Amino acid sequence: MAWKTAIMGATGAVGTEFLAILEQRRFPLKSLKLLASARSAGKKVQFMGQELVIEELTDNSFKGVELVLASAGGSVSKQYAPAAVAAGAIVVDNTSAFRMDGQIPLVVPEVNPQDIKAHKGIIANPNCSTIIMNVPVWPLHKANPIRRLVVSTYQAVSGAGAKAMHELEQQARDWAAGRPVKSEVMPHQTLFNVFSHNSRVSANGYNEEENKMLNETRKIFHCPDIRITATCVRVPVLRAHSEAINIEFSRPMGEDEVRGILSAAPGVRIIDDRQRNYFPMPLESAGHDDVLVGRIRQDMSLSGGTGIDLFVSGDQIRKGAALNAVQIAELL
Are residues 26 and 159 in the same domain? Predict the structure, then answer.
């Protein structure tokens, strides 16, 4: 089946990645409409040898559209996704607008593809750090139910959008030229710095990113009782998130068993060379589909061999956003 498709938020970092992935994966398109704000309307974009003109997003943008890939911000999705569904389209939404709605599936294709069948017009794409954790953790959870997850993230500025990426690049240029380093997009200087994730801190002391990882994983795994704690941090990296993951299993599990499971897991590539001290790095996961997994080792703080530590890295714009949404569309 070829789809009459629209991209909502076509000029953003994820929207641009949508175009690249649709072309690379030869997604079956009958037509493609690019939608963005009024200030971007009229701009031209090259796609598969054609010149496409960006249109202003309105309630009337979805006539004849069958599939919408949305990444224009939560408030925009809340406003326009219902109009798209009313016009007969299926919306794969990459924002936080619908993720925790009990009536809307939240899907990582390598984890819970069956949930797509329950959609009523909208399918939610999880948070980027949730996806990057879930891809390698889920096959381990299937083999040996997880009792507790402790995750610390090292998150690229791409999660804050294209403007944050441009700001980090400009900070590097300014520093090299001896000019003052300015921070206008992010709350603190990103260059040569690390700071707590720039999302609102909730009453429970966790910021929004940390709460997303907890709540979304429970929904995706259909495991409301799994114990998870997270600390999410911004680092001066352009577009790939890394995560240190500590897992406590229900029964003992050795390194070799973990490697065997992950070597056969979809969307995972093991990079785990102790001799060369060579493990996952954001420079090497950027631009690639797989989540890189390494530093596979027994947690020596847990008796009985029930603990495993991992370090993972995955492209935030790609698998953490655009690719996951396109994979959902492919399953449709």
Answer: no
Q: What pLDDT does residue 318 have?
A: 96
238 and 292 co-located in one domain: yes
Residues 221 and 239 in one domain: yes
Closest C-alpha to 137, from 255, 281, 258, 304: 258
pTM: 0.96
For residues 149 and 230, membership in a common domain is answered with: yes
Its domain, for residue 29, covers 3-126+322-331
pLDDT in tens, 241-257: 999 999 999 999 999 99
Whether pLDDT at 1 is above 90? no
Of 119, 141, 197, 241, catalytic:
241
Q: Is 128 a catalytic residue?
A: yes
CA 200 to each of CA 20, 191, 233, 281, 325: distance values in angstroms, whole numbers, following the listed order: 32, 22, 13, 28, 25
Residues 17 and 37 in one domain: yes
Please tell me the distance from the alpha carbon of residue 188 to that of residue 109, in angstroms, as a whole number: 35
pLDDT at 331: 96
pLDDT digit string, tens, across residues 268-288: 999 999 999 999 999 999 999
**pLDDT tens-digit profile of 178-226?**
999 999 999 999 999 999 999 999 999 999 999 999 999 999 999 999 9
Measure the CA angle with vertex 29, ends 332 and 119; round to 5°: 20
Residue 285, domain CATH? 3.30.360.10
User: Of the listed 119, 128, 141, 197, which one is catalytic?
Assistant: 128
Q: Are residues 45 and 157 in the same domain?
A: no
Count the neighbouring beta carbons within 10 Å of the beta carbon of residue 322.
27
> Which phi and psi (to 5°) does residue 287 adopt?
85, 0
**Which band of pLDDT confidence, cut at 50, 70 and 90, is reported for residue 293?**
very high
Q: In angstroms, rounded to a whole number, what is the distance separating the alpha carbons of residues 332 and 325?
A: 11
